[in-house]
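Same chain as my last thread, 291 residues:
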Amino acid sequence: MFRIGIIGSDNSHAIAFSQLLNREEGYNGMRVAGARVTRLYGVEPERTQEVAEAGEIDEIVTETEHMMGDVDGIICVLRDGALHKDAVLPFLKAGLPVYVDKPLATTVADVEAMIDTAERTGVGFSSFSTLRYELGFQAWISESRESEGEAITGISTGPGDLDSEYSGIFFYGIHAVELMLERWGYGVREVTAVPSGRSVQAVCRYDSGLLVTLNLLHGGRPGFRLSSFGQRGTSEHTLDTATNYRDGMKIILEVLAEGAWPLTPPQLTEPVAILAAIEDSVASGGPVALA
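reply #2:
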């Protein structure tokens, strides 16, 4: 059995991922076979114990390095992306595959450091919002591209908080950014952001000239919604979040157990670069070019 260590107990994803793999009844009735979460590290002891019991995790460790030799791969679910690089680099250097929950990091430099290490040691590595692999969303992408033809513009809406204690817009904003890139592709070259309280609206300009708007909203119940406008038609899609953990876990296991890279280094880097540009644009009041 492939053994996984989870770093971080503060995130609800720690419970979802461990229940999917460990419990006979799975998570919300869904189970993914092929691996087991055997070790857990968390900062807050009471919360960590709660996660271990809910996910039927064999052992809690008091230091992340105590997992070395006892696991075959790492899932890092620390809420604050600024902590991810330091948490996972020792494992990448030791030749263990790693999946980092969204966001991969809060700076492009941190992203590059993790990618460089994973490439050097030749291990599986990735980071993504599991929403991007939700089967209904993937089906809508195929249908909308075929029926609508060339894209004119689009809108991706989801939660966001410029003042989140977990590195601001990076924590929740990553979802809408990744959904945008999955639907309309990569190649954003300029971002112009306008804040409204703790929410922000950002227009992303692609190499092609295509403009896609991100609505990152604080408060209310925005869900995750996309609107697509093409030469031959339009459509909208609201994500069903009931199955995304299961759908995403299947890809995570390809990373950890098979050494896969479902996203290329540039694809891993661009979402972080976009969110950093949003922050810079809010600060400067003008457009910010991506390097």
